[in-house]
């Protein structure tokens, strides 16, 4: 699977070995190793990598809707993770999650990465994309709204959002 390129980011689909390194918090070695920005992987990226590995065990590799490492195009450094939680459901909807290191939050990277995966999901035939945030995570709620999601509902400690991809 190819990298997805946005204005400022490269979204790199994770191999099993890359996901294992992220989950363990162990960077690659050698001249071809991708640099990790200070603080990467954030706890959410490590959890996301573990969930991705579990999904790969369940659904197989390569997945139709993968997980990605978010890299800055300026220096190639990994700054976060974004990806789908598995294949599309029977109605054609997929679920999305993401995480960035603290030092790059507030720069629009998350919204840019989410918009990139919305394009990918549409091209793959998904009917729509869902995401949720903690009630207290106002920044993530703003990311989803900026990327084109609409508020769906509030349930317990979560706010749910959706982005329909077909008319």
Can you walk me through this structure?
The chain is α+β, with helices and mostly antiparallel strands and 167 residues long. It has one domain (4-164): 3-Layer(aba) Sandwich (Aminopeptidase). Helix content is 30%, strand content 29%. It has helices at 16-24, 43-59, 109-123, 138-146; strands at 4-5, 9-13, 67-72, 78-84, 93-100, 128-134, 150-155, 158-164. It has an eight-stranded mixed β-sheet, sandwiched between helices. α1 runs antiparallel to α2 (43-59). It starts with a strand and ends with a strand. The mean pLDDT is 94.
Encode the helix/strand succession as letters.
EEHHEEEHEHEE
| CATH topology tier name | Aminopeptidase
The strand line-up of the biggest sheet is 1-2-3-4-5-6-8-7
Gyration radius, rounded: 15 Å
Could you name the CATH homologous superfamily?
Gcn5-related N-acetyltransferase (GNAT)
Number of strands: 8
Give the overall form. globular
Which whole number gives the mean pLDDT?
94
Contiguous low-pLDDT stretches (5 residues minimum) are none
CATH architecture: 3-Layer(aba) Sandwich
**What fraction of the residues are assigned to beta strands by DSSP?**
25-35%
């Amino acid at each position: 699977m190819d990298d997805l390129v946005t204005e400022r980011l490269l979204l790199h689909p994770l191999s099993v070995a890359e996901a294992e390194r992220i989950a363990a918090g162990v960077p690659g070695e050698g001249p071809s190793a991708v640099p990790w920005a200070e603080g990467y992987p954030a706890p959410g990226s490590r959890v996301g990598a573990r969930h991705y590995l579990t999904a790969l065990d369940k659904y197989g590799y390569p997945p139709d809707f993968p997980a990605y490492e978010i890299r800055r195009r300026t220096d190639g450094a990994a700054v976060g993770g974004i990806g789908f939680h598995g294949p599309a459901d029977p109605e054609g909807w997929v679920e999305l999650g993401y995480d960035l290191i603290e030092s790059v939050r507030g720069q629009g990277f998350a919204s840019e990465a989410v918009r990139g995966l919305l394009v990918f999901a549409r091209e793959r035939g998904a009917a729509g994309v869902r995401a949720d945030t903690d009630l207290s995570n106002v920044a993530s709620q703003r990311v989803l709204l900026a990327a084109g999601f609409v508020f769906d509902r509030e349930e317990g400690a979560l706010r749910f959002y959706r982005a329909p991809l077909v008319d």
